[in-house]
Amino acid sequence: MYKLFYALKSASMGVRVLLEEIGAPYELIETSVKMDEPRPPEQLAVNPNGWVPVLSWEGGAMYECAAITMFLCDRHPEARLAPAIDDPARAMYLQTLVYFSNSVQNAFQLTYYPDRFVDAPADEPSAEQRGSRRLRETWTVIDDQIGDNEWVLGTQFSAADIYLFMLTTWLRTAKGHPTMSEFPNAKRIADKVLQRPSVQHVYKPWIADPQY
Fold first, then answer.
1. What is the pTM (predicted TM-score) of this model?
2. Rounded to whole angstroms, how far apart are CA atoms 150 and 63?
3. Is 208 among the domain residues?
4. Residue 54 phi/psi, 5° resolution?
5. Are strands 26-30 and 2-6 parallel, antiparallel or unpaired?
6. In what order do the strands lie in the sheet with 60-63?
7. Residues near 166 by Cβ (< 8 Å), separated by ≥ 6?
């Protein structure tokens, strides 16, 4: 059984969707994304940063959402959530997950945690504004990459589609973020992912209130 250290509004929700899609048994251990709140010692032993997701299993543990995604997909190839190692689509799959993690998520951090990027509080609004511009830039790259594809990688649903959907749930117009209507190709895929039973189950709070 897997253990998933989990908090609403975090990337751990995307990992939970993966576990639902795979059909593997797992235990949720609720924690927090607020840095001033305590974390379970078992979580901090794996990730001293205190962030989620953290995934553990008999014999191992790890953090970082993109890394966990790759690990689970490779460990459960029967779920067909990632191209095989010799599949030509494998390169785009890896590239996209790393871009989501390193570029799109980094832009979100600028808007949600501007204090991490500046020395003075007076500079935080500038970081937030740059983050929103960077979100528009990075989502445009993804939208252009998708083009007319049925899914992010082409004709096959994959973990990249789940990751894309997860990222869309963090967009907030109140923070100056772009809306998904600006990226019709990505929105088309996110709308289809939303219909999956795994997503309906995990994202029930967001579905009820997208600004929760």
1. 0.94
2. 30
3. no
4. -125, 130
5. parallel
6. 26-30, 2-6, 54-57, 60-63
7. 11, 13, 14, 17
Residue 191 in contact with residue 9, Cβ under 8 Å?
no
Same domain for 134 and 69?
A: no
Decide: 131 and 107 in contact? Cβ < 8 Å: yes
Residues 111 and 159 in one domain: yes
Looking at the domain assignment, is residue 108 inside a domain?
yes
Reduced to 3 states, what is the DSSP secondary structure of residue 158? coil
**Matching residue, tokens 């993109």:** 66
User: Facing residues of 55 across strands?
Assistant: 4, 62
Domain harbouring 115, CATH code: 1.20.1050.10
Q: Is the sign of the CA dihedral 171, 174, 176, 182 positive or negative?
A: positive
Nearest alpha carbon to residue 145 among 167, 168, 161? 161
- Structural domain including 98 reads 90-196
Tokens of 191: 């709308």
Q: Indicate if 23 and 121 belong to the same structural domain.
A: no
Query: What is the per-residue burial (b if ≥16 Cβ within 10 Å, else e) of 88-109?
Result: ebeebbeebbebbbebbbebbe
Query: pLDDT tens digits for the chain (212 residues)?
Result: 999 999 999 999 999 999 999 999 999 999 988 777 888 888 888 888 888 999 999 989 999 999 999 999 999 999 999 999 999 999 999 999 999 999 999 999 999 999 989 999 999 999 999 999 999 999 999 999 999 999 999 999 999 999 999 999 999 999 999 999 999 999 999 999 999 999 999 999 999 888 77
